[in-house]
């Protein structure tokens, strides 16, 4: 009788299908992600101008750091790595990321613990905390800009009435407070997201653990630190890194809430400013490449720390 | 003992109230402001005193804002349709077919979703110029693929993985090819997941600012966030707060309604995309 | 309709070999049951026959035709899954018709076949319902119906009764037996871990252990002539009594096996001890007698229990029903 070895086997058929199913997605990602990234890195090694994208010449790492020794023996350092504006942006970004993620985690944890308890109106509160998350960042920036307005803002009004400040503060304009303003808005907007992620982790903790602890008469604070926290730590760690990555690339909030303020300018903002507004296209490309490198380190950390079950073949 | 218990109950509910007010107040205040005009606008009102549609008329009367809303709707919808179309087949392959390098591929997709968008801005700018789509909706649709596609693939893969294996095997025994399995068996089961993922991707595209700001140059091609972000008067003192708040309310209310309707599903989608460790 | 031959079939996942070389022929129209403890490879073997998994080495023939790499739908098989695996979004009718629709069978033919199968299984009044509106037993019938309409050469069952409650299980078992008689030329292969199901349904049983075929034969052969300690212990309920040490030495073997119904209470038997426990099933009863062996000896006696717990009895195995095994678990002839 005829043998059927000629046809495709089931696994071959499925692998072939998988290839054709993945090809369009991979092509799309290559087209919009990989290729532009490579071009950005290339631009960072040239002296390309915004007005003349194809007129750039290869200049090596000069956009990052160039060292020239003058005849007089003076050494001149140039490039992003010796640009105080860049380091200011790095410092702003890191400060913003660390502080905002810290507060979002702590507040998110509190909100999640509250939502994990059973009380009347829980559904209403859970719906309410989704509102800040649903509002577009630009809209939140504008809403808060209005509330933080120096003359007519409600925040100043409240603080004055409470006697916490003696005179109105120009929150977004003053260099002393601009960062606080940005942090305030970001924490308001993102704490719900954090709370929901933590809540999902909390709900995976079996209820009877708490009941057993209650029967043993263990102090609730102790229960939290000894039982709850260790159990949700993996979820928490992943959520923190996830947020950290988001915070490191922040652009829109800063751009709209505190335009042109050196006190809040982040890496993304300064890169775009150089690239598009100041016609230092290649210089901006170098700065965005540096940001990419920093975030790449964090992504590796995420994948390593999160121990994400990538293949789906793990302990399911 | 009971006094202490009462006290802690009061403290708990106080905390609940604080959380609630903290979440809702800014939006509430935006609504209050959007109905205020003239000098009323420059008095701090905790409760709605004036009620005038003037700001809304100003915003909707200006041709460009309505135009921006349509731009945003078109761009976000097209992006989502495109991303879902590519993601459904891709996530089937990633969730259901064993092949070498699958883990690596998923890791790459995850990495792309965490890309700083600024890192591709220069390269995308060149691409947009090269394709001649600068200042058209297609520039945004193309660039939004970079964050909607990895996200939808990742979330749909986790959903797809949870579908029972035996149903797929039954279909294989019935003679279904992978394409038939996706379209006739899995898609009908995945509707809830598709709606959730699509909605989250839609919100992402709707809210995007950096690309939209960089790839548009005229008021008629702006998306909503750019329109609101750049809505301004001649100087700092003349910022039209009333119309800005009205515009904010207009673009936010539909989102909030959608989010509240799909509340549970959205939480499930977010968790699938974020922490599934 | 099909004779299935497995020739030295192996299956490996990476470095792990789960099927370690199996030779087995399943005759046309035979009801073959694969049985064994969990992890023995019985389900994998079924999946290899179905084509859902591919064999690593060896050959598989259907009616003399090599099908090693043939996709499931071309093998002429139908499968009933443990979880029924009905398409949740399709009505019962469409569940049963799905395969034929993909085959481009004409609508009239589809309707004819679905309706006759539904009548056979008494689910013709359920055709417009969704799976979630059915009871467990009804879903099971739909799953069987979906298999029947394919008019297969080989019918595969993967632990189809394990999700049903005890009463329904007995009833469905009976129906599967009836089905086998009404489709007498269709080969059926049935996987279970329950040796009672195996004994009641099978024409022949294949006992698997650790990826190898331990013994294949009719239920009576396996019961009466187990060719290993493992099969002797696996087939039969209650489990065969095993004695070691001095009890076995007396019979010149390492392990001595004797079934509970082959032990009698006698005035002066070779073994004696206290009755630890009595299980009364009405028609017969079991005595658990402690005679100093590794485990209490179970004695099966007809009728109602007439011996009280705590009393001492003397028991004797029937000499012509002793099973002797050597240190490797092989029978001593």
TrEMBL record, chain A:
Compartments in which it is found: Cell membrane
* Residues annotated as transmembrane: 17-38, 94-115, 127-147, 178-202, 223-245, 281-305
Q: What topology does the record note for this protein and the membrane?
A: Multi-pass membrane protein
Which keywords does this chain's UniProt record carry? Cell membrane, Membrane, Transmembrane, Transmembrane helix, Transport
Q: Which PROSITE patterns match?
A: ABC_TM1
Q: Domain ABC transmembrane type-1, which positions?
A: 90-302
What is any Pfam family matched here? Answer: BPD_transp_1
InterPro entries attached to this UniProt entry: MetI-like (IPR000515), MetI-like_sf (IPR035906)
The domain of life is Bacteria
Question: Any keyword ATP-binding?
Answer: no
For this UniProt entry, which residues form the secretion signal?
Answer: none
Q: Which family does it belong to?
A: Belongs to the binding-protein-dependent transport system permease family.
- PANTHER family for the chain: BLR7065 PROTEIN, INTEGRAL MEMBRANE SUGAR TRANSPORT PROTEIN
Specify the protein name: Sugar ABC transporter permease
TrEMBL record, chain B:
Q: Which Pfam families match?
A: BPD_transp_1 (PF00528)
Q: Where in the cell is it found?
A: Cell membrane
Task: Tell me what topology the record assigns in the membrane.
Answer: Multi-pass membrane protein
Membrane spanning stretches: 12-31, 73-95, 104-125, 137-156, 185-206, 241-262
| Entry keywords, A to Z | Cell membrane, Membrane, Transmembrane, Transmembrane helix, Transport
Key word Transmembrane present in the record? Answer: yes
Asked whether the keyword Membrane is assigned, the reply is: yes
Where do the ABC transmembrane type-1 domain residues begin and end?
A: 69-262
| Main localization, broad class | membrane
Give the InterPro entries listed for this entry.
BP-dep_ABC_trans_perm, MetI-like, MetI-like_sf
Name the family: Belongs to the binding-protein-dependent transport system permease family.
The protein's name is Carbohydrate ABC transporter permease
Query: What is the scientific name of the source organism?
Result: Rhodobacter calidifons
Automatic annotation (TrEMBL), chain C:
Task: Recall the GO molecular function terms of this protein's record.
Answer: ATP binding
| Highest taxon of source | Bacteria
**InterPro entries in alphabetical order:** AAA+_ATPase, ABC_transporter-like_ATP-bd, ABC_transporter-like_CS, ABC_transpr_MalK-like, ABC_transpr_MalK/UgpC-like, Mo/tungstate-bd_C_term_dom, NA-bd_OB-fold, P-loop_NTPase
Which UniProt keywords are given for this protein, alphabetically ordered? ATP-binding, Nucleotide-binding, Transport
Q: Where is the ABC transporter domain?
A: 4-235
The record's Gene3D superfamilies line, in alphabetical order, gives:
Nucleic acid-binding proteins, P-loop containing nucleotide triphosphate hydrolases
One Pfam short name: ABC_tran
Q: Which family does it belong to?
A: Belongs to the ABC transporter superfamily.
Q: What is this protein called?
A: ABC transporter ATP-binding protein
